Amino acid sequence: MKARLIQIDPIDNVAIVTEAATKGEVIDNLTLLCDIPQGHKVALKDLKQGDAVLRYAVVLGYLLQDVKGGMWINEHMLELPAQPSLKDLHFEKPKPVVLPVPKRTTFEGYANDDGLYAGTRNILAITTTVQCVSGVVDQLVRRIKAELLPKYPNVDSVVAINHAYGCGVAINAPDAVIPIRSIKNTIKNPNFGGQIMVVGLGCEKLTVDKLVSEAEITAENVIMLQDHPGFVAMMEALMQMSDSKLKKLNERKRTTLPLSKLCIGMQCGGSDAFSGITANPAAGHASDLLVSGGATVMFSEVTEVRDGVHLLAQRCTSKEAVDKLVAEIGWYDEYLAKGSVDRSANPTPGNKKGGLSNIVEKAMGSIVKSGKAPIVEVIGPGELPTKQGLIFAATPASDIVCGPSQLASGIALQVFMTGRGTPYGLAEAPVIKVCSRNVMKEMWQDLIDLDAGSIATGEETVKQVGERLFNLILDVASGQKPYAEQFGLNNFLCYFNPAPIT
Fold this sequence. Notes:
This is Galactarate dehydratase. By secondary structure, this protein is α/β, with parallel strands linked by helices. The protein is built from twelve helices and 22 strands. Strand 11, helix 1 and strand 12 form a beta-alpha-beta unit.
């Protein structure tokens, strides 16, 4: 396909090339002065050292050298601008926005008696208190799938909530609240049907009472392996407990539910320069349709909103939300500083190969997956929301850490946008993959669920792809399996733990 230029805002002085282009090629009346890889930036006019480079009508950085129109601008040529100050953020009533009206307002899900949200899947979750028991639980899961699950056709799967936490940790350190609440809240994920099954060892620091209530600590819900005389006895007790839980889960049936019972997460990983103009805006439109219909949508990744935090503050519907935004982002700034890094550590080699020069450019493309809806609440990693609508969940940007954090906060489905490609998935909730480029879908036909690259080629609009994604979300929430679920592509649950390990 012939290359063309995509300039996002009229004041931008750079554009990206839709296809790899060579020196001397004329694209949209601009003669290229060097070879430029697909998705990378080209200067639209002559610029001097120190000039601001603009994309999304935002200063991406300042040039470290003179550049002529038609030259390639990459990550080595830019100095980062100062990040927005948190001290300048304050609450002002957000400007009214008109959200699109969805044509579908229901889905087929599993209602829960004890929760706000419904499940999109019917899963037995077995939670461990400490990594020491994960080997036993892994063996248990294998036996359940082979011996018990066939008896219970209404149960989709069984998963082990294994993690690296639980012992050898500073359990009372202030930041220990993050992994503890994340594991605790995961137990109550809507996809698990309110069934509690916890497996502990007996000598760990993460005691059962930190994960479930006193009333829930019963022989029907909790097993401590040190109470049983050997592996065979452990497995017999665990299989009996599992069977009783599966019987109850098997009684669950899908019913028609309003969108107000649906909570999903938006995440992006392996982003490229197309992400902010194709996959993420399409996800943003789908998010607006969901929120307009009454659903709850979470978006995340602190370092990928940090340079647009002022834009998020403008969308918060309350002073409490702005204050929480400042507190969570401020905490993360300090967390990075303790590690002697800042937000510039975020872009990956793949991000840069895909045309993203720095974290500012990445952030501007990342934020658009949240759409235009007002932000009703800000929560910390692993916290439960108290409101319905669009929510910023302040998690790390790492895919394998953000996912578990969103699961703990109650999502029953995740939408994952990618430009470079990743086989990422979750056993606990279905994951829909959306790619930013046609070539990504062509390469990974059986891994990508929806291709947003048609926006870059001009074949479809953001609205059209967003509506397709919205319908796919509801179809998957109602039982349709995306590729990652079909192939059982599941990542380890890497809970965020900033607390000390002793």
